[in-house]
Amino acid sequence: MLTPHRNTGFAELAEFISDDFCPKGMITPCDIVEASGIGFSCGDYGNAFDGLLEHQYGKFHIYINANRLQHAYTPRARFTIAHELGHYFIDEHRNALKSGKAPSHPSFTNFQSSNIVEREADYFAASLLLPATRVKADVNRRKFNFNLLDELSKKYQTSLMSTAIRFADIGNHPIMVIFSKNGIIEWKWSSKDFPYYHLKNGNRVPETTVAGDFFATKSAFTGTDQIIADDWFQVWDNRYLQKFYEHCIPYAPLNCALSIVWED
Ligand SMILES: [Zn+2]
């Protein structure tokens, strides 16, 4: 099971860039690309990649695959462009590309890769599109529920997955984000002060969870459901009946599910 890589240094770098290029309103990665003098193409590249950063003849160029992302303004495309900007703005990534030590590599959105460099660029992208200061102001004094994440994802034009991951780091209520496929947990990400870290079934999705129900029945319950701590977590004390909520977003075509879990 993978645990997404954390690096607050990248988050700070990303937020600095957001504030510098897009001080007000929505973060527009295309404008950051243009203002940085990076070449940009959005075309049909089959299924080869979602995004790609190339360095040739002393110049950087970002390619976005319209075949997979529709156009440059969908949340996935915005994330992909922000990811490629991560490869450009993170010193080690840019220098590796510039020196020819690392070849241009195809990137796929999002948070699916086990490659550390990809994880760093994903983390940079989420931080760029959801700057901490702005998000914190939006959620200040708000009670957490799924609608709050939904609202943020619409306001910032980011996927629910990247919004939830970002919220886990900077939000005002501890949550855990669990991504599973074919009944197996691919990765989890949680707030530092989330009460439990150990899932009770190792990397298998427990049957009594909402995600577990989706894998067992293939019928997708969409909404927030009440569960107990013992459904997902290893609980050593008498708090196993503690009330939790799970909001599961299943994606039947790929047999995968994103669960957001929080304590009442
Ligand atoms: Zn990449």
Task: Write a structural description.
The chain folds into two domains: 8-132, no CATH class; 174-263. 39% of the residues lie in helices and 20% in strands. A five-stranded antiparallel beta sheet has the order 5-4-8-7-6, with helices on both faces. A three-stranded mixed beta sheet has the order 1-3-2. The mean pLDDT is 89. Helix 2 (29-35) runs parallel beside helix 4 (75-89), helix 4 (75-89) packs across helix 6 and helix 8 (146-156) crosses helix 9 (160-170). The radius of gyration is 19 Å and the shape is globular. With 264 residues, the protein is of the alpha+beta class. The structure holds zinc ion (ZN).
How is this structure best summarized?
By secondary structure, the chain is of the alpha+beta class. The chain has helices at residues 8-21, 29-35, 66-69, 75-89, 91-98, 116-129, 132-139, 146-156, 160-170, 210-217, 229-232; strands at residues 39-43, 51-56, 59-65, 175-181, 184-190, 224-228, 243-251, 256-263. The longest helix is centred in the first third of the chain and has 15 residues, at 75-89.
